[in-house]
């Protein structure tokens, strides 16, 4: 796997320049950066990232949030869910998307810490590999496929699109420091396409979001994060997603084993 696009720094809290500044600078330049060797400790993570931006808390004690830090979303395969499933339960791929937060102005960063990458060794695309995409690459892909379609897709996405909260807003917005003809900000919640398909399956907006989502998946870069890898992305310019995961399988004795994969994610404004 070529991962040269993913800069790697080491977490070295006592050495010279503070790592948060280094990480933030790498993200400002390249849109994405990785810090390896980060401890799987919720308080350390929040304290570290709070030097870059303000962590956004999830409200209402949602089931997925971390018991120690309300700003952390704990992504793992749930035992109860696994018990209701067949063996070899497969959790399909997650299309690339941006932070679930719809705050305006847009939250600046999305971060994730791989606590445990879980089972490895299945064919490529079935080990929960992370997908990361610069949206500019998705737009370039769209245009290369069909310049005529690119025009109406971009037009539809820059106009009002109905979101699950009942408010219409653009999915694509211009950036103050635009860096090229394909450099736009994107707000693509992971449930937006499902919502649109249910509400207005044939509308131009639904088709445009589907095109963007597919182009994002096609242009996505794939990497398997290791335990203690912290990745921070520019939430305007980059989307994130995941390949398939085997959630649970039976061992040789027939006992149900649950994949220990665990990742913490958060959004900073
Ligand atoms: Fe996400």
Instruction: Report the principal-axis shape.
Output: globular
- The radius of gyration is 19 Å
Based on the coordinates given, report the CATH architecture: 4-Layer Sandwich
Terminal-residue CA separation: 31 Å
Q: What is the count of helical runs?
A: 7
User: Helices and strands, in N-to-C order?
Assistant: EHEHEHEEEEHHEEEEHHEEEEEE
Q: Which ligands are bound?
A: fe (ii) ion
Determine the structural class based on helices, strands and strand pairing: alpha+beta
Major sheet strand order: 1-2-13-6-17-3
Largest pleated sheet: 6 strands, mixed
Number of domains: 1
What is the CATH topology descriptor? Answer: Double-stranded beta-helix
- Fraction in helix: 25-40%
At the first level of CATH, the class is Alpha Beta
Q: How much of the sequence is in beta strands?
A: 25-35%
**Overall pLDDT confidence:** 90
The unreliable regions are none
- What is the CATH superfamily? Clavaminate synthase-like
**Total strand count, please?**
17
Describe this structure in words.
The chain has seven helices and 17 strands. By secondary structure, it is an alpha+beta fold. The protein has one domain: Double-stranded beta-helix (4-Layer Sandwich), CATH 3.60.130. A hairpin with a 5-residue loop joins strand 15 and strand 16. It is globular. Residues 97, 190, 240 line the site of fe (ii) ion.
